[in-house]
Specification:
CATH topology of the largest domain in chain A: Alpha-D-Glucose-1,6-Bisphosphate, Chain A, domain 4
Shape of chain A: elongated
Number of strands of chain B: 7
Strand order of the largest sheet of chain A: 1-7-6-5-4-3-2
Number of helices of chain A: 12
Number of helices of chain B: 3
Distance between the termini of chain B: 38 Å
Strand content of chain A: 25-35%
Largest sheet of chain B: 7 strands, antiparallel
Mean pLDDT of chain B: 94
CATH topology of chain B: Alpha-D-Glucose-1,6-Bisphosphate, Chain A, domain 4
Largest sheet of chain A: 7 strands, antiparallel
Helix content of chain B: 10-25%
CATH superfamily of the largest domain in chain A: START domain
Number of domains of chain A: 3
Largest interface: A-B, 20 and 19 residues
Oligomer: heterodimer
Order of helices and strands of chain B: EHHEEEEEEH
CATH class of the largest domain in chain A: Alpha Beta
Radius of gyration of chain B: 15 Å
Radius of gyration of chain A: 28 Å
Mean pLDDT of chain A: 92
Strand content of chain B: 35-45%
CATH class of chain B: Alpha Beta
Shape of chain B: globular
CATH architecture of the largest domain in chain A: 2-Layer Sandwich
Distance between the termini of chain A: 63 Å
Structural class of chain B: alpha+beta
Structural class of chain A: alpha/beta
Low-confidence stretches of chain B: none
Number of domains of chain B: 1
């Protein structure tokens, strides 16, 4: 009678990463501790169906196993014993991996059937279930935690990153609010990740107008500073996971990720953040592209899909239409059927905005646009990053039942708005913050996935990027405030 | 064919989860998006071929036919006969697999369907997020985290 053994578990790593190890039929002597040495016979590739691995166990046993099926689509590997000093007869085993989409983990199912000499059924079932399968689960977990799969076949390179140690880093310190020159680079340390945290080595950092407001001291509660406890601006960064704290699922050292959250501190080369802020980066999205797009793109995403869902023919007025968020809104909204009206400060920027789908471009350096917008029928939705200097013009540009969304205040904080001002047009006023649209974590994942898809589908263009070194953050801010830049600014760490 | 696949881990045994979801007429008892349900023609809810007739909380009416039910595989397959979603040839399977390590459950919910061009992403999000993941989230809440 055939014996059957089934064991299964969940590995805290994305399926692609576990599969890369499992599909290599000769990887087991690197990760499974009972396997002492293994080689593929006859010089075959270790993922070639039909290849035979010959290996010795630490207790001296010798086994030859043949790969009889490998399925890349189902992530399934089937193999059998062709010769062994252990009394397993007609042994056929299958490993199947499945994605746990809820948490980016991997379900691992390992089962086999075999015959045994009479009387040894229970003993051999136990040996396979515990000594091979359950021990294998634990061993592979440890192998991935050490980053063993990133070290190449030799497996002997650098040891595990010392998780308990602080990591030296470069960061931007603000000791007093002010102009760009208060952004001073200095050396510091990133502590090891606490429970639920991820420590990330940054390669690219997004520069947003919010960072300018923080630096100017307009949002002191969000970034308190004093000479002894400097603040560090920055809401988003992309890079590689260095290590993770207790209770973090689905992220491992070496994973490419982006992080975005409501507490500043991203202008640094290494940083710890809550795992709920972290999303994996698709291979097709480079670090600088991710940082030119993430916060700005998620902003465009919630504006166009949730706060003011685009209807066909809707007239959308976008200020700073050639800026980072502006270009994204022009392209994405027009692809969804909106008529986009944009304001820009120069003819050069007007050309860029037009090329991104902005149908009507108003060039103005003194925030006068309401008459031109009204001639087009008025704005159903205004996305306003200008603030106080354009207050009256925005009210005048609104269509009846229009929706004025105040996203930023580049020219200064908006003076209080009386509800009666809205009554005149049955207008709506919103003052949203992107971070209320990126929680819970599933929402951040959903929006970022939709953003990368929009880029792949051509609904938004690859961003125009101006790159600065992290140490040159002051120059980047000066450039952003000069109104001379087009597209997105990114710091490289 | 559009394919949607969502999977999750629920921290109780597959037997326990199956007891809650096996009944083809029990959606309103465990899925937060479903308001009511009945089986047409007074058939028993575990007879393959029976039709459940239910409303979502936003008022949409859906009729689905049970195509397969396996207590051995902890699996249930059904098709949509009528719905406001604008899908055709919609067949879905809800399946549980025991995780021997820790006595937990690996839950999979998948669907294949056709739809009008351009609606793929929206429907994938609605079905994968609003229906499948929302169902798993409710089961995880119900059974708690251990």
């Amino acid at each position: 009678m055939l014996q059957r053994v089934v064991r299964s578990t969940v590995i805290d790593a994305p399926l692609e990463r576990v599969w890369a190890v499992i599909r290599d039929f000769n990887s087991h002597d690197q990760w499974h501790e009972v396997v002492e040495r293994s080689r593929i016979e006859g010089g075959d590739r270790s993922d070639q169906v039909g290849c035979v691995r010959a290996f010795t166990l630490r207790d001296g046993q010798f086994i030859r196993e043949q790969l009889i099926a490998l399925d890349e689509r189902e992530h399934r590997s089937t193999y059998c014993i062709v010769e062994a000093t252990v009394p397993l007869r007609r042994y056929v085993a299958t490993i199947t991996l499945k994605p746990v989409t809820d948490g980016n983990r991997t379900f691992w199912h390992w089962e086999s059937t075999f015959a045994t000499p009479p009387g040894q059924e229970r003993e051999l079932r136990e040996m396979v279930a515990t000594g091979v399968y359950e021990a294998g689960f634990e061993n592979l977990r440890r192998f991935l935690r050490r980053g063993g799969d990133h070290r190449g076949p030799a497996g002997a390179a650098a040891g595990p990153f010392p998780a308990a140690l602080p990591a030296p880093c470069r960061r931007i310190a603000v000791r007093a609010y002010g102009g760009p020159d208060v952004l001073v680079p200095e050396n510091g340390e990133a502590p090891p990740p606490g429970p639920g945290e991820v420590r990330i080595r940054h390669r690219a950092i997004g520069v947003n107008f919010l960072d300018v407001y923080l630096r100017r001291g307009w949002l002191p509660a969000m970034m308190p500073v004093d000479a002894g406890r400097p603040g560090t601006p920055g809401m988003e960064a992309a890079g590689t996971v260095l290590d993770v704290g207790e209770g973090v699922h689905g992220l491992l050292p070496g994973d490419r990720v982006a992080a975005l959250g409501p507490v500043p501190g991203a202008y640094a080369s290494v940083r710890c953040v809550p795992a709920a802020w972290v999303v994996p980066l698709p291979t097709a999205i480079e670090d600088d592209v991710a940082m030119a797009l993430l916060l700005k793109g998620l902003t465009a995403d919630y504006l166009l899909h949730d706060l003011a869902p685009v209807r066909s023919g809707m007239r959308l007025l976008v200020h700073a239409a050639a800026g980072g968020v502006g270009l994204l809104l022009c392209a994405w909204a027009s692809s969804l059927g909106a008529t986009v009206i944009g304001t820009v400060s120069s003819e050069d920027k007007a050309r860029v905005a037009r090329a991104h789908g902005c149908e009507h471009v108003i060039v103005t350096r003194d925030y006068r646009f309401a008459d031109a917008v009204q001639r087009l029928g008025g704005a159903d939705v205004i996305v306003d990053g200008l603030g106080d200097a354009a207050r009256e013009q925005n009210l005048a540009a609104l269509a009846r039942r229009g929706h004025w969304i105040s996203l930023g205040q580049a020219t200064g904080p908006l003076a209080p708005l009386s509800p009666d001002l809205l009554l005149a047009k049955s207008a709506t006023f919103s003052r949203p913050v992107v971070f209320d649209y990126t929680e819970p974590h599933g929402e951040l994942l959903r929006r970022s996935t939709r953003l990368w898809a929009a880029l792949a589908e051509g609904r938004i263009r690859r961003p125009v990027i101006e790159r600065y070194a992290l140490d040159a953050a002051a120059e980047a801010h000066a450039r952003l405030e000069s109104r001379g830049s087009t597209g997105s600014l990114v710091l490289l760490a | 064919m559009i394919r949607v696949y969502v999977s999750s881990v629920i921290d109780v045994s597959a037997d326990t989860v199956w007891a809650r979801i096996r009944d083809f007429n029990a959606l309103p008892l465990w899925h937060p998006a479903i308001a009511d349900s009945r089986i047409e023609n007074q058939e028993p809810s575990d007879r393959v071929g029976c039709i459940r007739h239910f409303h979502t909380r936003d008022g949409g009416m859906i009729r689905e036919r049970l195509l397969a039910l396996s207590d051995y595989d902890y699996a249930c397959t059904y098709e949509i006969l009528e719905s406001p979603m604008g899908v055709s040839q919609y067949v879905a399977t809800l399946k549980l697999v025991p995780i021997t390590d820790g006595g937990r459950t690996f839950a999979e919910w998948s669907a294949e369907f056709e739809c009008a061009e351009g609606r793929e992403a929206e429907l994938t999000e609605l079905i994968g997020g609003g229906v499948f993941q929302a169902g798993f989230d409710a089961l995880k809440r119900h059974f708690g985290r251990r």
